Protein: Ribosomal protein RSM22 (Predicted rRNA methylase)
Amino acid sequence: MNASAPSAASLRAALAALLDGLPPNRAAQAVERLIANYRGTTPTDAPVLRDRSDVAAYAAYRMPATFEAVRAALYALRDAAPDWAPGTHTDVGGGTGAASWAVAEAWEEGPPRTTVLDWAEPALALGRELAAGIVDAEWRRERIGSALSLADTDLVTVSYVLKELTEADRTALVTEAARAAQAVVIVEPGTPDGYERIIAARTLLIDAGFTVAAPCPHSGACPIVPGTDWCHFSARVSRSSLHRKVKGGSLPYEDEKYAYVAAVRFPATPTTGRVVRRPQIRKGQVLLELCAPEGLGRETVTKRHGPLYKQARDAEWGDSWPPEDEG
Ligand SMILES: C[S@@+](CC[C@H](N)C(=O)[O-])C[C@H]1O[C@@H](n2cnc3c(N)ncnc32)[C@H](O)[C@@H]1O
Structure:
């Protein structure tokens, strides 16, 4: 592992070093308090992350998972626009910088200049400390609201932030992101309400002239009947000792559920179909639930389909289907 390259492993190493300085159990207690706080649904008018140990706990507990979720969304964007790379990036509500790590990793060959904006100074300070020498970013205090004014930028990321905002502030943020950026990637928890916030943001982006690059195969209306289901995906994240302390259990991983939209102002080729549930593997057949331009559908791939059957067995929730040629 190259310790100075942005990756899941270097992020974990930086987070582990951070917790070294905290008294035993202090991080677990702070995480438990923050989880209780985040379960509340009302947006607050002051930062929830109050001091360094809150922030260190939040970072160690959540950053590996938000990193993986944002990373998956960015790779889906890259698949739709392989020749595009951002020269500048603004991470709004960026906190300790998980999305900035993911962006630096996704375009590692030429990472953009990143600006992280957040109203919580302790989060920015810790993010700056964690990223030192690995992710090149400027960390700036900024409040999201109707007065938010973003400098023009290639890419805006907004990860796990909309939930913390009032509806008016969510609209102001997405509208301003659409004005300032060439590409906007928004990630939320993979819950029914997270999906609803994504759909509302997706509509605002399309109305502002964007096309959807991922996860959808088109920029038309989402075929999910409101209230019956929600589009979301899953990223596997290794559990740290802090996770085991807070949640108990012995599984070495957990699955982070997330919903997202990546939309662009430049030409992109969205997938022709996407696997929207974990594929079910039965004897001699694989059942795929798909979202395609003509809507939601199911496909059963059997041994009789030859090489496609092997590809179906390897297909994962969130993948493109049929698989794109790799030549
Ligand atoms: C759940 S955290 C997500 C942080 C980061 N984007 C990530 O994915 O790990 C939400 C972040 O939004 C920030 N935030 C919430 N409301 C805000 C506001 N009105 N103005 C600026 N930042 C805000 C919080 O301080 C926090 O850092």
